[in-house]
Amino acid sequence: MRVGSGGGFRAILYTIKKGREAGGVWKLYQALRTRNSCKTCAVGMGGQKGGMVNELGHAFEVCKKSMQAMAADMQPGIDPNFWKQNSIESLKRWSPRELETSGRLIHPLRYRAGASHYEVITWKEAFESIASHLRKITPDESFWYFSGRSSNEAGFLLQLLARVYGTNNVNNCSYYCHQASGVGLQTSVGSGTATIVLEDLEKADTVFLIGGNPASNHPRLMTSLMRVRRAGGHVIVINPVRETGLINFRIPSDPISLLKGTKIASHYVQPHIGGDLALLWGLAKATKQLGAFDEPFLGQHTTGLDQWQQSLDDLSWHEIETKSGVARSEIESIAKLYSQSKRTVFSWTMGITHHAHGVDNVQAIANLAFARGMVGREGCGLMPIRGHSNVQGIGSVGVTPKLKDQIFTALREQFGVNLPETPGKDTLECMEAAERGEIKVGFCLGGNLFGSNPDSTFADKAMSNLDLNVMMSTTLNTGHAHGLARETIVLPVLARDEEPSPTTQESMFNFVRLSDGGPARLPGPRSEISVIAAIGKRLLPDTPGIDWDDLAQPSTIRKWIGAVVPGYGKISQIDETKEEFQIEGRTFHEPTFGTPDGRGVLHCHSLPDLKGTESNQLRLMTVRSEGQFNTVVYEEEDLYRNQERRDIILMHPDDLKRLGLSHDQKVTVRSDTGELNQILARGYDSIRSGNALMYYPESNVLVSRHADPQSKTPAFKGVVVEVIAE
To answer: Which among 280, 299, 311, 293 has a CA at the least distance from the CA of 371?
Structure first.
């Protein structure tokens, strides 16, 4: 049956299905209700208010993503015979879903070049091998990669270990997703995160949702969007694809919405992939022509006004229409809505950041907000919709190549640790250095670095060129089968709700939550913090200022974080107070920003030409399905797009006809970087003609390593491809 809305009774039936997989619906419910932060997106559910409760105290807000992650962690352990029965070559043929559903990792594993299988080893063997490799190299011949799955405490401790070891090659997964948001916001408002709290979103009368699909990827935001619509507000969706869940969504926890559905998008604009910057400038120009600028706000609270307004005046409508693919009349109608709004929130995801001009896109959104004073007061502001549950916290506690000056100084002065001052490499730089043989050891705290990379062929080569790669993981992923180093060690770790001591996470609304942890479900996996401390003790036993036994306690790490990380002071007492808190200096309810002079910064840009305009080309964007989270694929089907498989390219029926193809014809999809064979070309009338979509991470082989020069974020969107009949 074709799906016509998101959520609804299918979501309820899915709950029963996942409950059965987890050993019973009641068992799954109890796991979800524990006082731990949600393991998936950064909306910020759970913590001390209990699972399925958001930061406003609204209860029973559960989504498929959280159930998928919880059910995965409730899998049985992988039997040791598994590694004897399944060779590396066979694992390479497994799909991401098949790897994920193999069970929980419970034994340390090792692969050595020339071997056909992984072998089970002891923790002692693993620790000794890791320390031995790190002693043999110079520190800058290593890199340290962090997933947003981990806690603030684990992230802080591992970056501290890397730096006292002697390198700043410390980077997190946001370099491949939202780093452009951080850079764009930092250069506009002086803070790299959301300027609002959740309550502001629900107070807004207009919400721009640009380049994102929260119905699939952040379903709990749909309740807030429902409330905006019920209050008579507008939700303006800007996306090359008409996404089912953004048109209509049935909130299972709301009886009226469940039965009747909720119309989410009041207006839907479909630019070409890569046309966002031109569209945003067009909206600003049209708003100016309507006389709707807040001139007092712009004059008192921004810099760069004269040059920005002159650039708007000089910009022609022909250029805007040509480079965005959106008619002037449509842009002007949206600008009119914006000009009438009293409180607007601008939100976006990777449809904005995954471009070679991703930072420009974010700055242009900030420009548009400044134009009408829609930042720096309640009920309006800027909201990057972050992906993994603690990706923002990982960045806050120091997981960046360059430490913030305040953290660097405080660590030195208050704790007496020696820190390197050499420039660190970002994620893509580390991969390229590994390919050149300049980096010899990698250490990955969660995630799937291989699967996250553009140009999969290159990623495989680069990671295979390492002498050692260490991965701390809960389940299998493609990175455990591809790109294996000459020695690869996999360390099984506990999930968040299995930690023996409480840990903390930070939501995308800058809210720090406390997870209680809980009993381990399986024997074997260890706490991430204890593993990091054990490696530190073996590698650097006599480091000035460091007591690894003491730092194996999360409460000790929190005291360090509270002392050195700006805005995190309350974390030092959270063990006693249990008080979850908003980080100071990031939420702007007054028009005084985090820039040196307290003013917002208006930026000017050159609008990029649309790519892929030749008759045999399409503009491709890589996307996640409704049945996956980041690189983790839980279901082969994409329910909301009505697709039952992933080896497909979706394009408008007019493009099928233009290219001389028929529906479900096998094709080769080719870019300048790589190609994929035996792909099914499918007509999909919800996408704008001239554009196409394929699933990530399988299509990463087509994505080049060309990155935004300011954020170093690769352009996973706007890939120019040819589709060739087989």
So the answer is: 293
